[in-house]
Amino acid sequence: MNTTRMAILVVALIAGIACVGVVLHGMASARRVAPVVIAAPVQPHPVVRVLVAKHDLNVGDKVGPDDMSWQTWPAEALNPAFITDGPPRTAPTGQLAGKVDQAADAVKAAMSDPAKGAGASLIASIVRERIIANEPIVRTKLVHPGAGGVMAVTLDPGMRAVALPLTAESAAGGFILPGDHVDVLLTRTLDASASASSGVPNGGGGNQTHVTNTIMKNVRVLAIDQSIGAPKTNAEIGATATVECTASQAEYLVVAKASGSLTLMLRSYADAAGPAEIGVQPHRIEADNVVRVFRTSASTPVTVTQ
């Protein structure tokens, strides 16, 4: 065997060994098990049960046992004003744990009546700001009848409450309800001389004539008698209507109430925007040369001549 053949055999042997090595290495790589990545466990988040409204509570409604319920709330989103049933607890994770947790909450809610627990002090409170369904109940939106004046917390800052006499005829047949906006009309009786000097025609031709003026516009009605909420019926006839106005507007209403009869004229909801305004001022309804002479509780218009 010559040298050339020996060299070819050696090269072939080395190539064969190299091929076998590559094949074995590939097979070993294929059999190698991929590393297992272990995800970090989800940390359980604390929750707490919060007292919420079962349904919408309107202004003037009285809170009862059937108006409250418990709702699970994340502890990190808890407001200090919320009413809870205890300290936060750890909530289980996972779908199965979540279902178990919901079932436990339902059982606990059935056994824990909010009206006998944390919500007991809210029973018979009156709603001063509307609370929608599933909204957490906070004490700032309620007022207890024995803790302070209900009307005082209903008034907007800087406003006053004035009571006006009512009849079925002067209150739009009883369809003026708390929350409506009205105009206040003043009707008075003038004698012939006063009506002539003030430019009011004497349609009857007698010694007296009736004059009606709008003295207040867009006044909000706070209550009818002792009711500050929506009545159970569509109409409510009371003896007094409490309206909201400024201090100066209250003075005009008091003067008007002593000067004649008042009638409330219901405004449309589309015309209820904006503040209350003074219409014709009571002391300017008569002419400048007409003065009123008061004797006891009665007043008589007198025309002053030169």
What attributes characterize this protein structure?
306 residues, alpha+beta, Type Iii Antifreeze Protein Isoform Hplc 12, 2 domains, six-stranded antiparallel beta sheet, three-stranded antiparallel beta sheet, 5 helices, 13 strands, 26% strand
Radius of gyration: 41 Å
Question: Could you give the order of the helices and strands?
Answer: HEEEHEEHEEHEEHEEEE
- Helix share, percent: 10-25%
Please report the total strand number as a whole number: 13
Number of domains: 2
User: Biggest sheet: strands, sense, closure?
Assistant: 6 strands, antiparallel
Q: What kind of assembly state do the chains in view correspond to? A: single chain
* Portion in strands: 25-35%
The residue-averaged pLDDT reads 75
Question: What class would the helix/strand composition place it in?
Answer: alpha+beta
Uncertain ranges: 196-201, 285-289
Distance between the termini: 162 Å
- Number of alpha- plus pi-helical segments: 5
Shape: elongated
Describe the protein:
It is a single chain. By secondary structure, this protein is an alpha+beta fold. It has two domains: 46-143, Type Iii Antifreeze Protein Isoform Hplc 12 (Alpha-Beta Complex), CATH 3.90.1210.10; 155-303, no CATH class. It contains five helices and 13 strands. The strands form four sheets. Strands 6, 7, 8, 9, 10 and 11 form a six-stranded antiparallel β-sheet that branches. A three-stranded antiparallel β-sheet has the order 2-1-3, with no helix packed on it. The longest helix has 29 residues, at 3-31. The chain is elongated. The N and C termini lie far apart (162 Å). Mean pLDDT is 75; it is low at 196-201 and 285-289.
